[in-house]
Design a protein that fits this description.
Structural class: alpha+beta
Helix content: 10-25%
Number of helices: 6
Bound molecules: uracil
Order of helices and strands: EHHEEEEEEEEHEHEEHEEEH
CATH superfamily of the largest domain: Pseudouridine synthase I, catalytic domain, N-terminal subdomain
Number of strands: 15
Length: 239
């Protein structure tokens, strides 16, 4: 974490407006450093020692932000794309300056839990292949699912390119012309869930991630909605 920071950057970091708006607010006398009203938004403050207040309320500096997105279908898990809408476009303006990125990828038509953060270290820990962080999906497939299919998932499935997946857990929730299941995988190969079912002749017609590690999607979050993780949820994600 930085020691010193420009006052306007600190206030912007706290979501108190754009640099231009902040310049104006500071001129209006709403900001104080160690109890003294200041007029210059370009001055530097010391994060450990100085106390900055905005309208009398202490302003805290935050280095990292962690958001939970219920990704809707139709947008790509990228920060920029020349053609498609991206998940980053769903981030509210007050978080934009944190330059958040998605933790891993979901396909354009996949819905559900996607974490957005600027914490590169945690992202690496969650995605590192050796860590085998479990990812849970709710899936609908065309065709009947059986106990035999559950056993195939438990053994590992050979994909179209010859790769044999690690053992995973598939639980049939409903079996009919279109069946439903929960799948937990411990790796993240390209289109993995779709290819696992595809290898069994069962095309995936709907896919939603419901959990990453111990962190579950907040089902009250509408598709496209974003909120910050609670402290408890962040602990679940770190563990
Ligand atoms: N597996 C897939 O096939 N697609 C996703 O988006 C995630 C996992």
């Amino acid at each position: 974490m930085k020691d010193k920071i420009r006052l306007d950057k600190l206030l912007a970091n706290a979501g108190l407006g754009s640099r231009k708006e902040i310049k104006k607010t500071v001129r209006e006398g709403k900001v104080a450093v160690n109890g003294t009203t200041v007029s210059d938004s370009s001055l530097h403050v010391h994060l450990g020692n100085d106390t900055v207040t905005f309208d009398g309320v202490v302003v805290e500096y935050r280095e990292y932000v962690y958001l939970m997105l219920n990704k809707p279908a139709g947008c790509v898990s990228a920060t920029v794309d020349s053609k498609e809408a991206t998940v980053v476009e769903l981030v509210p303006d007050r978080f934009r300056h944190f330059e958040l990125f998605p933790v891993g990828r979901l396909d354009k038509d996949t819905e559900g839990l996607l974490i957005l953060t600027n914490d590169g270290k945690l992202t690496h820990e969650l995605l590192a292949p050796k860590k085998h962080v479990p990812k849970t999906y709710f899936v609908k497939v065309k065709g009947r699912l059986t106990e035999g299919h559950e056993k195939r998932f438990a053994k590992g499935i050979v994909l179209d390119d010859g790769y044999k997946t690690m053992p995973s857990r598939m639980t049939v929730l409903h079996s009919d012309d279109v069946s439903e299941a929960e799948v937990i995988i411990h790796e993240g190969k390209y289109h993995q869930v779709k290819r696992m079912f595809g290898a069994l002749g069962l095309p995936v017609v709907y896919l939603k991630r419901t959990a990453m590690g111990s962190l579950s999607l907040d089902e009250s979050l509408a598709p496209g909605a974003v909120r910050e993780l609670s402290a408890k949820e962040l602990t679940l994600l770190r563990n």
